[in-house]
Amino acid sequence: MKKKHILYAAILSMGMATSSCSDYLNVSDKLEETTQNLDKIFMSEELSEQWLAQVYYYLIRYNADIHSSAWCITNFADDYIFCDKLDELRKFKYAEYDEEFHRDAWYDAYNGIRQASIFIHNIDRNPEFTPEERKDYKAQARFARAYLYWKLLQKFGPIPLMPDKGMDYSLSYEEVATPRSTYDECADFIAQEMVLAAYDLPEDRDSRNIARPTRGAALAARAKVLLYAASPINNPGGPGDPLPSERFTDLVDDQGRLLMGQEYNEEKWAKAAAAAKDVVEMGKRGVYRLYTVKARSEGTIDYPATITPPHHDIYSGENYPNGWADIDPLQSYQNMFNGNLYPSDNPEMIFTTGQNINAYWLSQRGMPIEIGGGNCYAMTGKQCDAYEMNTGVPFDKEKKYTGDNMYITAEEEKSGQYAPLRQGVNKRYAQREPRFYASCAYNGTFWPATSAELPENRNKQVFYYRGMESGWGISNNVLRTGIGVMKYISVRDNGKGGTIIEKPVVGIRYADVLLWYAEALNELNPGAQYTIPSWDGSQSYTITRDEGEMHYAIKRVRLRAGLPDYDENDVYQNQEAFRKALKHERQIEFFAENSRYFDLRRWKDAQEEESMPITGCNIYMSETAKDYFHTQVTLSDIPTTFNRKMYFWPISKNELNKNFRMTQNPGWKGYDQ
């Protein structure tokens, strides 16, 4: 039977279901209206597909893995800010929002959960699908339902788990009211559901069905939720907890039951490591690998010649994954996000919602005005300085980059010694690691914008000095840090008589799993050993702080980026040093991928990191005062702080009012306040 591809453009016009968690608990007439149509829907191939498509629809809105600030505000933390809505940014950074803040994320998730549950319990009666197709579709719905629960757990902390078969609406309001489950109960439920889905999901999808989950997607999502459950926010007091006395003793259900972990349990890390290993083993047998581009000695504007990393005695002469001799580190990273690579051609992609408009908006809003962009999204000075030099040593933030000799000359540009920098660019951006140039649109970045019809709209070197087209004083939208974002932007993208190509939404990729694996292994004390069964029980893993396995994971990510592996003695043999290095690696590798916001919270690092002032270039300086422009300043109009209540989002008062057993997150107001 020919399967239909889920077309997200078509999904937008559907109106199959509009119930929220409130409706799930409180309203029966909509269910009765829907029930009248269930026979018709689930006896039809087309209508069943549409019902499942509606479930997926809730993964591309307020619970999207990647989107613009309007839909995915958690994509912005201490590394990435939006500049077009400074009032909203201030409220977000200062927690000045109220309990109705982004409430659609909650309602969308429970809409999708309800739709998925109905699908799971009705699809088996559809005679137009084969038994194999019914199993696959049911597993897809189970994955989507668990993934929506995961998105809720990330944002809101412990949440109510709905009955698998739905509510009995003949019961009273008091009887259907549902309390919050504990964090561990939520995590375990999601993990178990992902295992059930994994049994019936295929290992691979064809290009027409790339947005449907696979077995690897279910197992990777399981690994992620178990890693979060093992992290200090829910597993306090361990060696990696920066605030060991900080425990959520005030996050309780309506009966006073503690909803967050209170005592450290090292075995949680072992279980997270084993879950990640399930996916790593798939990588070892070729199901996944990190994406790489072959090195080239000659190139074009669209596909430039490789910028070879500095010589390294070990890695320069070896091919990947033992070195970088045969790859282009810059394009290996860059092409995963800029639209040059379809999700189906990316061996690193584990889960995606496809090639769609979510990441398109990150492109359009991030591009400079000179090529028809919104000039809205900025990288913070902190993130900019976090990128290492191309030798792997830290960037020297104390060095002064002032004076005429600190700007690229025409001769230096021609020589290529500072490639890809062009004339006039400050050397604080010179000789940085490849991921910097794939992610950062520094002052003086060259934008090919090749899709524009008119020559005058192509090939723009854009400066953010005061008085320039994308600088302060000309546009309503100005990069407050003077540092733009290149990630998600193609050399073809042009909003002035050209096109902005669609981008893939990267939900989970193999690099993520490798770093989860290394992180979880590192948290085990030397000598500790755990025997953990694989996801399907077919084998058992011996889980220890295995430096060989940690090398396996980290080395692949670092060498793909053209950087040497960590030092054996100084990092791998030191638990705290490795922890610090891994956190830094995640900050760089997953910039603008909706990871940093949640990483800082699960690690309990947000209190320190998000309280640091946002810094950037002095955008009030013109080119005649270029040294002052490149002297970093604090952005006083974007104050930062971190309040304890900011660990989790508030629950809507409307939801609290409709479910009397629901409790509010600490620091936020209840329905009667």
- Range of helix content: 25-40%
The oligomerization state is: single chain
Largest sheet: 2 strands, antiparallel
Shape, per Cα inertia axes: globular
Number of E strands: 12
Structural class: mainly alpha
Helical region count? 24
Tell me the β content.
5-15%
In what order do the strands lie side by side in the largest sheet? 1-3
* CA-based gyration radius: 25 Å
Q: Whole-Å distance between the termini?
A: 56 Å
Tell me, rounded to a whole number, the average pLDDT. Answer: 92
Low-confidence stretches: 1-33
Subcellular location: Cell outer membrane
Organism: Bacteroides difficilis
Keywords: Cell outer membrane, Membrane, Signal
Domain RagB/SusD: 354-668
